[in-house]
Design a protein that fits this description.
about 425 residues; 21 helices; disordered C terminus
């Protein structure tokens, strides 16, 4: 156990909580460890998505399969996110019937203007082609916009399919570049325990500072709702498709610990993709589905949008009529696609949605700034589990999932870690191609 990265990440997480609670001021300064880890992983995510999606789509070979996969993924993403928004709205209405004590936003009001300026790109970009269509090839790969990277990677993959034998050298170069990128990911991931320590220390240092008041009701309700969606909704969906959600969570335990520590699901994208491929989901289907899910299928963020909006409306005394709720729901379905799996994007997406609808008092959002780190952890965990289940389900619908291999991998007493080179599927893939 002491040789696994999961063990040391768990130690970092526990020590961070204790350190942040005992020395809040020092714990707040430890945030740079998590931020540095997230920045390094974010730097690699764009090239990783490009190489895996382009190479994966090219390996499928059939245009009919590509079209079928895209249609299934889009329908699943839209249905799941819409349902999550509706569930959040219903829970928010129930929450509004409770006697919620008043909460003073305090100094967080001063931060609202800067957050509103950051959210302008979310609100404006979500309603224009700039959110989907990149301006250049290089900016799409390294610019940090996952949708841009996915569009360019999909175009490249389809072009390689059309090119046939002439595209084979380029496909080989992309696959070898993917292998190098995952070696870089393995190097950066070695710092996960330090990142978990810094993120947990910062979060623990903030809990004692925030005047919770009525916010405790929102935090409890949101965590319970996320748990219900994961273990009831996603659990039943997983069971209907032939695998166990609890075993999948156990299989992704290291990634979940990193997400809890950093409050972000973005940094674990490469490792989740590798683990799903190792478990029987081919890269050709798992890579584009998982990459698309990081922008189009963030069910934790969708739950947060409608629940938080209803909470702000209730605490501000304005309330929302049925028409206002339906309008907010419709706009949130669009603006939520601009969110990404990084810390703070949920709050920015909420501000952008409120700016567009003008149905909720913007000043009330200041109540949520102090607890955003706490809420971000639940959002990120829900997003990660939701995208993992979606990838396996859509892969099975496309007829590409090796269900026997998946269940054998998930039921293993000690599921394989990706800390050791012999467990990395990219190493096996390169060896096979060289053998040929």
């Amino acid at each position: 156990m002491h040789r696994t990265l999961t063990f040391w990440t768990m130690c970092g997480l526990g020590l961070g909580v204790v350190f942040g609670a005992v020395a809040p001021e020092a714990g707040e300064r430890m945030r740079f460890l998590a931020d540095a880890f997230i920045s390094l992983m974010t730097m690699l995510i764009g090239p990783v998505i490009f190489t895996t999606v382009a190479g994966g789509l090219a390996s499928l070979g059939g245009r009919r399969l590509l079209s079928s996969l895209s249609l299934k993924a889009v329908l699943y993403f839209e249905a799941a996110t819409t349902l999550a928004l509706v569930i959040g709205l219903l829970v928010g209405n129930l929450l509004g019937r409770l006697p919620i004590p008043a909460t003073d936003p305090g100094p967080d009001v001063d931060k609202l203007d800067s957050l509103r300026r950051q959210a302008e790109s979310f609100g404006n970009g979500s309603l224009s082609l700039d959110a989907v269509v990149p301006h250049s090839f290089s900016s799409a790969v390294i610019g940090g916009n996952m949708l841009h990277t996915l569009v360019v990677a999909a175009l490249t993959g389809v072009a390689l399919v059309m090119a046939g034998r002439r595209g084979a050298p380029v496909l080989d170069l992309i696959n070898r570049g993917s292998h190098i990128l995952f070696c870089m990911v393995r190097i950066v991931v070695a710092g996960a325990p330090a990142a978990a320590f810094g993120g947990a220390a910062y979060t623990a240092s903030q809990i004692g500072v925030v005047p919770l008041g009525g916010l405790a009701c929102l935090i409890s309700a949101f965590y319970l709702t996320c748990a219900a969606v994961i273990f009831l909704g996603l659990g039943l969906l997983a069971r209907a498709n032939g695998f166990s959600l609890l075993r999948l969570v156990r299989y992704l335990r290291h990634e979940l610990l990193v997400v809890i520590g950093t409050s972000s699901s973005g940094p674990v994208f490469p490792r989740v993709l590798r683990k799903l491929e190792l478990a029987g989901a081919p890269r050709g289907t798992s890579a584009p589905v998982l990459a698309g899910g990081y922008s189009l299928h963030l069910i934790g963020t969708c739950l947060y949008l409608t629940m938080a909006a209803m909470f702000v409306a209730v605490t501000s005394g304005s309330g929302l009529s049925l028409g206002d709720q339906l309008l907010f729901l419709a706009i949130a379905m669009i603006v939520s696609k601009s969110a990404v799996g990084v810390t703070g994007s949920g709050l920015l997406t909420l501000i952008a949605t409120i700016s567009v609808t003008q149905s909720v008092p913007m000043a009330g959002v200041a109540l949520l700034i102090g607890i955003d780190r706490i809420m971000s952890e639940a959002r990120a965990v829900t997003n990660l589990i939701g995208n993992s289940v979606a990838t396996l389900v859509i892969t099975r619908w496309a007829g590409q999932l090796d269900l026997d291999r998946l269940n054998h991998t998930l039921s293993a007493q000690r599921p394989a870690e990706l800390d050791r080179p012999e467990d990395d599927p990219s190493v096996v893939e390169i060896r096979i191609s060289d053998g040929k």
